[in-house]
Design goal:
This protein is an alpha+beta fold. Helix content is 30%, strand content 23%.
C-alpha cells in the first residue's frame, strides 16, 4: 500500500491485494511505484518513507534510478562500511548516542555497492532507529517520523474508531470489495479528522 501523509494520517492512493500473508516483495513495491508514476508522475513524490521491511539493494537502486528521494529505516544488523572502510553492523556506528539523541553522519557510507547517508540513535532495550537515504539531510529522523501516518490509519480502522470498516473483524477474499473498503476507511478518516463539514460520496 502506498499512501500520502496529510496532517498525521496516511491516505492510501495505490495498493495491491496480495495472495499471501506478510510483506510485499521488491517486484510488488516496484509495481506500486510505477502505477503511481503513471498516474501522477515521479516529480510529485516528495519523499518515500518505509520501515525496516522495505529495504534492499535492488529496491534502493530502483528508487535512485527514478530519482525518488527516500527515508527508510535499516535493520540494526545491516552491513555498512564504517569510516575506515570496514564492514560492521549499522548499529555500531551509533553506539555513542544517548537514548533518542540522533547522530547524523555527514559523509556517505558504502552499503550494497551504493553511497548512502545514515543517521541513527539508541532507543533503549537494544533497539536503534537508523534512517538511510540517498542524499544528505540535516534532520532525516524528523522526515522519517511522518511514516507513522499509515500506522495511524491502520490503528483507527482496527479499533473501529472511524465507525466504518473494521479490518480485524472482516475478511474479504475478492479484491474489488476490499479496495472499496480501504478507500472508504481512508476517506472516512479524512472526513472525521480533517473535514468534518464536508460530505463525501463513494461510487
Amino acid at each position: 500500500m502506498l499512501s500520502i501523509v496529510y496532517r498525521g494520517i496516511g491516505f492510501p492512493v495505490v495498493w495491491l491485494p496480495l495472495p499471501k500473508t506478510g510483506n510485499s516483495d521488491t517486484i510488488e513495491r516496484e509495481t506500486l511505484i510505477e502505477i503511481f508514476i503513471d498516474l501522477f508522475g515521479a516529480q510529485n513524490i516528495q519523499c518515500l518513507l518505509g520501515d525496516r521491511e522495505f529495504v534492499g539493494k535492488r529496491w534502493f537502486r530502483f528508487l535512485r534510478q527514478h530519482r525518488i528521494k527516500f527515508r527508510m529505516r535499516l535493520k540494526k544488523d545491516t552491513p555498512v562500511c564504517n569510516s575506515r572502510g570496514k564492514l560492521v553492523h549499522a548499529w555500531r556506528l551509533f553506539t555513542s548516542t544517548r537514548v533518542n539523541q540522533m547522530l547524523v553522519l555527514p559523509e556517505a557510507r558504502q552499503m550494497w555497492g551504493m553511497e548512502l547517508y545514515l543517521s541513527g540513535c539508541y532507543l533503549g532495550s537494544g533497539e536503534y532507529l537508523i534512517p538511510v537515504s540517498a542524499e544528505h539531510s540535516p534532520e532525516p529522523h524528523r522526515e522519517y517520523k511522518e511514516r507513522w501516518g499509515i500506522e495511524t490509519l491502520f490503528a483507527l480502522t482496527r479499533q473501529g474508531t472511524l465507525g466504518c470498516w473494521h479490518f480485524a473483524r472482516n475478511r474479504v477474499r475478492r479484491p474489488i470489495p476490499l479496495r472499496k473498503k480501504v478507500c472508504e476507511s481512508a476517506f472516512e478518516s479524512l472526513r472525521k479528522e480533517i473535514l468534518p463539514n464536508e460530505k463525501i460520496i463513494f461510487t
